[in-house]
Amino acid sequence: xxxxxxxxxxxYTVAGPVIREFHExxxxxxxxxxxxxxxxxxxxxxxxxxxxxxxxxxxxxxxKTKWIVIKNSYRQMWxxxxxxxxxxxxxxxxxxxxxxxxxxxxxxHSIELLLPDGTVIDMEVYxxxxxxxxxxxxxxxxxxxxxxxxxxDVPSGVINMATTRWARYPEDDKGxxxxxxxxxxxxxxxxxxxxxxxxxxxxxxxxxxxIFKQPSGLSPQAENMRGKAATYYQDLMPGKSQxxxxxxxxxxxxxxxxxxxxxxxxxxxxxxxxxxxxPLHSQIIxxxxxxxxxxxxxxQQDPAGRIVSPAEITLENAGVVRLxxxxxxxxxxxxxxxxxNDDVLIYGDPAGNNRSANDEKAAIEILRAHTGxxxxxxxxxxxxxxxxxxxxxxxxxxxxxxxxxxxxxxKMLRKGFNGKYHYRKIKGTxxxxxxxxxxxxxxHIQDALQYGLLGMGQARELMQTPSKFGAQxxxxxxxxxxxxxxxxxxxxxxx
Length: 495
Description:
Number of helices: 15
Radius of gyration: 29 Å
Helix content: 25-40%
Distance between the termini: 56 Å
CATH topology of the largest domain: Nucleotidyltransferase, domain 5
Mean pLDDT: 85
Structural class: alpha/beta
CATH architecture of the largest domain: 2-Layer Sandwich
Number of domains: 2
Shape: elongated
Low-confidence stretches: 1-7, 465-478, 484-495
CATH class of the largest domain: Alpha Beta
């Protein structure tokens, strides 16, 4: 890069084409994402130097910049960032061409580096711990740019506050900002699909937020393999979960496992369609969970018996009327050929038959009145039966293909399957978990799926005989289900 003289070794070898693209872009906000050990942090250290050297020199031939470097904790800062930082920038140096002074009590590094063209990099770097940061932390720092190390571990609020300080330095004689570039660089292992980082780069591409994704550590194109054993990534894998391997070896976004997963049968690569699921010409079954955070899942079955879910609804602080409106709107938008009220059946939480103390109306009655569709309580509310109905769908093959598939746009359902719907660990115990699913924002849509599948006749035989799966159900419920299944024979199908 700079390769100024023999005293300072500024020879930097870019460890792969993705890292090179990361260096070369002029995007305002960019992130380098990849497996563990892929050279991300090292690349960012050199990018700080590179950008400092590209800053326009002022009248005194000084290229002035100020950086804010953020890590989740000072302990991690010292373990991860500082060893790599001090390899490039000496902790303290009184060399006339390369002066540095590190104030450990304030975590500020002052750097002056003479370049071959006679200009001087004049840089000040503030190292800040996210776990100790507040509004006061950033006050008074007029910076040029920000580096967030391992960004997925840093709260979005800290980063948002830090960005209020960029584009404030350097200033001209009039006090106006005169820098040639300002922005933010980040490095990270792949974040959770729920993480703010994933959402920001997905939503703000048009605003100059660009993410650069490195190849899997097992790929022939893996970056930064120098200095590692040929089997480095393979040796990391034994004993690890697939979710861990996906993130730290393959560099893929994943889902955080917060407890014991309820459906280990779920395989995101198999049960989630990568292409949009086209609605079938078959009856729509809508599974519904009521409450202030209601959910609805749309199900259809093809002639071979495969069940698909093209769409979901999740609402917050909403009643049954809003849920009814959302169901009608979704059917009109996603299922335009289903124009008859007979085309739709709704099965919901059996508790929806209970009348409200305020208006003496049951949720199921309100839903029926506002949608015009036939609405029934699911055959049972027994949790074991409900879960078994889902498990059977996940483990069933139809013509060698999975018997249950959801659209990738069913985001809440998908997140639930990938660990957000779980058995919570009992505090103070060594690996013991609750025996019922944890109630959270992801449980409602999972409940809705269970009611819908039961309404379709899944796991029916489990309820024929009194057992842990539930007592025998009334004949009129099964008669209705049988009539619905028979009617499907008259429908046209498409896959």
